[in-house]
Amino acid sequence: xxxxxxxQIIQIAAEKEGENDAFKDFLQxxxxxxxxxxxxxxxKQVEQAIDCTQCGNCCKTLLINVSEEKAKQxxxxxxxxxxxxxxxxxxxGSNGMMLMNTIPCHFxxxxxxxxxxxxxxxxxxxxGLHLPNFTQRLFTVFMHYTRCPIVFNVIEQLKTTTGFADNxx
Length: 169
Prior knowledge:
Blueprint: H1 6-15, H2 17-28, H3 32-49, H4 57-61, E1 65-66, H5 68-77, H6 82-89, E2 90-92, E3 98-100, E4 108-109, E5 112-113, H7 121-125, H8 138-143, H9 149-161
Helix pairs in contact: 3-9, 5-6
């Protein structure tokens, strides 16, 4: 059974802070390919069991990068000019980087994305556990440990699968 309640996840994470630091060190010493395979398999299992629309926390808490191409595509889908889309939804940094201008996301309604088929690349990839080089992204992964029930449960399962949990206590 997986833990999906964010308050419970936050409480457990606080209790396991030292354990998680040790686990990061353990993962850094592990074989990258083996860990990627384990994470990929665990991610498939956990993603199937957790309904993201019961949470939606990623859409409530993350800054979303927007590429020009995706802005154009979504503007077209919304039947708006790119200029109107950017005025309404985008904030541009001095370097030209585009971000959604609100948190939570404009397109979140009842924990679901109203533009799901046209969502941004960062949204499409989140939480990114399917991506290679997991052990090189531990800082980011653990940033999402309390934000996303999928990340939390994959990490907790990974502790057992790798044998790390056998060494606790």
